[in-house]
Amino acid sequence: MPITLVVADDQAMVRQGFSALLAAQPDLSVLGEAADGIEAVELCRRVHPDVVLMDVRMPRRDGLWAAAQILGARGADEVQLPADGVAGRTKVLMLTTFDIDDYVYEALRIGASGFLLKDAPADELVRAVRVVAAGEALLAPSITRRLIREVTGRRTRPRSDRAIEALTPREREVLDLVADGKSNQEIATDLFVAEQTVKTHVSSVLTKLSLRDRAQAVVFAYENGLK
């Protein structure tokens, strides 16, 4: 089955260009386009895509608000569209023209699977969609880690000591490497274990910390002074 997509961007040429590029891939299928956050949420409710490419800044409702609705999170604002029909499996990949942007950080906290600069090469966009659809977070680029460092450095949040203490030493080690933006394969190489073992540890970390995915695990690590 192909990876199904929705592209949300207020600029028609950008939106159509991304859609054409992605639709040309044999394993990708674009189900529709949206010009603002409200259209994106309503479209996702109808077609249930695997991945939404979501522009951060759009009219009426921005990408941060839309991501919160699609991912079932609270935090964008108090206005919520009816949750029935919004695809629970949908992953959100944020698109931005800014390399350091508080909106992107908030999107990661809400549960977005990562972000990509709009001027990224075409092959990087295609790869990003596949990575996010596979359940990985798009966090390897150093610019993402710099974003999290800079924004969390300006925020004061209580440490989650009880949650951290629930992790085994190996799980703490895995969390540290996840926060470095490393893939399961890279972590397996570093720790001299099987990739499946790493997947098991990552799953356990997410469960114990009540986190949605690897993106939130990275945010957790930085917020709690583990990096």
Could you characterize the architecture of this molecule?
There is one protein chain. By secondary structure, the chain is of the alpha/beta class. The protein folds into 2 domains: 3-150, Rossmann fold (3-Layer(aba) Sandwich), CATH 3.40.50; 157-224, Arc Repressor Mutant, subunit A (Orthogonal Bundle), CATH 1.10.10. It is built from 11 helices and 5 strands. A 5-stranded parallel β-sheet has the order 2-1-3-4-5, sandwiched between helices. Strand 1, helix 1 (12-23) and strand 2 form a beta-alpha-beta unit. Helix 3 (63-70) runs parallel beside helix 4, helix 8 (169-179) packs across helix 10 and helix 9 packs across helix 10 (195-209). It is globular. The termini are far apart.
Strand-helix topology:
Blueprint: E1 3-8, H1 12-23, E2 28-34, H2 37-47, E3 51-55, H3 63-70, E4 91-96, H4 102-110, E5 114-117, H5 122-133, H6 142-152, H7 161-165, H8 169-179, H9 184-191, H10 195-209, H11 214-223
Parallel strand pairs: 1-2, 1-3, 3-4, 4-5
